[in-house]
């Protein structure tokens, strides 16, 4: 496994070791000991799996406030996405900064996103399947959303007219969102 540090401390790209032969390929998609060895000592307690049918679908920017904040280990198992993590930790030197990485079924990369970040992704292909490992259960009362096109954050999604849910379309700007980090 190869670990790549992003521009934001604690947000890591993980590239698995892939074994390929004439039958296909194999890799470990999760190994608690190996993650602990690189500093990710987290008990993931829930797996989530989403499907997006149409290229240009945007999901995000989502997070949960404390005490239900979630660390996430995300990957794209079918298709391709532009994955985004936004630092919402108010005392962080990278507050409001964001990182992006292309996650695809071919590159098999994963992105580790610690608590204190908003997360979103834009599908780059049709028929995308996306998986999340999280370390806290979903809690509707602490769920928050920030507008994907918030100028204060300034994410370059490379798509000016994404397909959005009503929830994401009506999300507040960062300045109007209560954040407990």
Question: What do you see in this structure?
Answer:
By secondary structure, the chain is mainly β. The chain has a single domain, classed as Jelly Rolls. Helix content is 6%, strand content 39%. The protein is built from two helices and 13 strands. Strand 1 and strand 2 form a beta hairpin.
Largest sheet entry: 6 strands, antiparallel
| Number of separate strands | 13
**Shape by Cα distribution:** globular
Quick one: CATH class? Mainly Beta
Strand order of the largest sheet: 1-2-10-7-12-5
CATH superfamily: Jelly Rolls
Name the assembly state: single chain
Class of secondary structure makeup: mainly beta
Describe the secondary-structure layout.
Blueprint: E1 2-5, E2 12-15, E3 19-21, E4 24-26, H1 32-37, E5 46-52, E6 58-64, E7 72-78, E8 80-87, E9 98-104, E10 110-113, E11 117-123, E12 128-134, E13 143-145, H2 166-169
Antiparallel strand pairs: 1-2, 2-10, 3-4, 5-12, 6-11, 6-13, 7-10, 7-12, 8-9, 8-11
Offer a few descriptive terms.
181 residues; mainly beta; Jelly Rolls; six-stranded antiparallel β-sheet; five-stranded antiparallel β-sheet; 2 helices; 13 strands
Question: Nutshell version of this structure?
Answer:
By secondary structure, the chain is mainly beta.
């Amino acid at each position: 496994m190869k670990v790549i540090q992003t521009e934001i401390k604690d947000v890591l790209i993980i590239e698995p070791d892939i074994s390929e032969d004439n039958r296909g390929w194999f890799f470990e998609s999760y190994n608690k000991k190996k993650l602990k060895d690189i500093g990710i000592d987290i008990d993931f307690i829930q797996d989530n799996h989403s499907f997006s049918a149409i290229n240009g679908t945007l999901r995000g920017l989502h997070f949960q406030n404390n005490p239900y904040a979630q660390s996430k280990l995300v990957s794209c198992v079918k298709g391709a996405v532009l994955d985004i993590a936004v630092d919402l930790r108010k005392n962080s030197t990278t507050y409001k900064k964001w990182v992006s990485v292309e996650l695809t079924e071919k590159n098999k990369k994963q992105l580790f996103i610690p608590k204190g970040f908003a997360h979103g992704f834009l599908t780059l292909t049709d028929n995308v399947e996306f998986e999340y490992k999280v370390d806290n259960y979903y809690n509707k009362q602490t769920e928050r959303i920030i507008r994907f096109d918030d100028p204060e954050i300034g994410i370059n999604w490379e798509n000016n007219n994404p397909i959005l849910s009503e929830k994401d379309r009506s999300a507040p700007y960062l300045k109007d969102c209560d954040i407990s980090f």
